Amino acid sequence: MTRQMTLVGFMQAGNVTVYSGSWRYPSADLGFLSMDYYAHIAQVLEAAKFDCVFFDDRLAMPGVYGNSVSDAVRYGARPIKLDLTAVLGGIIGATSRIGVGATYSTTYYDPFHIARTFATLDHLSGGRAAWNVVTSVNDSEAQNFGVETHLDHDQRYDRAEEFLEAVRALWDSWEDDALIMDRESGEFADPSKVHEVDHKGDYFSVRGPLTVPRTPQGRPVILQAGSSGRGRRFAGRWADMIFTADPGLPVAQRHYAEQKEQIASEGRNPDDVKLLPMAYTVVGETEEIAREKERLFLDAYVHPHASLALLSEVLNYDFAKHDLDDVISDEMMAASGGIRGLAEGVRRHLDREVTVRDLAAHRATLLQGPRFVGTATQVADQMQEWFASGGCDGFVLAATHLPGAFEEFTRMVVPVLQERGLFRSEYPGATLRDHLGVERP
């Protein structure tokens, strides 16, 4: 069978997409507090045969900038985040094939809770559940869970490794044929096929077994987005889909080759794991129309303080102590390791010294991943170049505004990809693992 793209819709259960000006776009639907809003978007993506829709999450309002949530609230910089279990439950009821994924943190939850949540979602959806594993990154989240500062990088990944071991053991604690449900004999399940886990580690003690039987997928699908060396090793060991943020094709090609080698080194088949960069698409009936849309997104809708509120949260560094025109210094980069990598990337893009304003603009202007702009044919050409040249296995598509960005892409671009044989016209099966072509464990 010809290799085809994996396409995932990237969502937020709140007032904005990852583009913090999305709520201001004139045709944006502001019904983000209603279930109909999320159900409609999932139905649009399912009609186009997307593999999955998954939701990002953060466990705090952005409050690092100025040590306050004021600017996040004032400018709509992601002050709203709904509970994802309820949102996924509504989507499951409104769809029948598309995968449904949610982000849950290994730092602020416990293995039994996560294992039960996603096993339940997998059963209720008929085998469509996915867990996006994150370790959480900032002090605002820590302070909502009773601690002052977040764990350091290596501690978070040490905890996450043990967390995944415990969750997998819980998912495997029921054998496939443990349920008997023989009314006549009165035997409900075979106790020899339901096992205690008895996990005792540095971070967790979990007796088990799980209170949910083995799921349709065997185990729900795992997404992960680790970008550091430790994060890439973690993804290579655990992930079925790896969510990346490579801004250009040469970087993506190197990352793709290195990550596939990492997966193989873990004794896994690299073809079973999908590498998916986040991408934006801006589609127009003509290239001129698409470029004008792009100009509006870049120039019209994001306040710099909204961008800095989100950037401060991501990097756990308070940019409010600087003027917008301050040059990014060595001292600033030393204070947060993430600033260095971001600033160096922006410097290469601008070919000059980088200011705080530049970082705010970078965050606001959709430069975290590739941006495909043009007519449907032109956008399909750009996606095909990445896919065919060793840059990715598909894309996690982020929206500039909702539901319009997904509606335009599915109506205009998906048919072109299907005509070229690059994307499916029908779902191959009932489960998310079926869509991904990954065997049930």
TrEMBL record:
One of its GO terms (molecular function) is oxidoreductase activity, acting on paired donors, with incorporation or reduction of molecular oxygen. Keywords: Flavoprotein, FMN, Monooxygenase, Oxidoreductase. InterPro entries: Diverse_substr_monoxygenases, Luciferase-like_dom, Luciferase-like_sf, NTA_MOA. Signal peptide: none annotated. It comes from the Bacteria. FMN binds at D57, T103, H153, Y157, S227, S228. The keyword Oxidoreductase applies. Residues 34-390 form the Luciferase-like domain. Belongs to the NtaA/SnaA/DszA monooxygenase family. This is FMN-dependent oxidoreductase (Nitrilotriacetate monooxygenase family). It comes from Pseudonocardia endophytica.
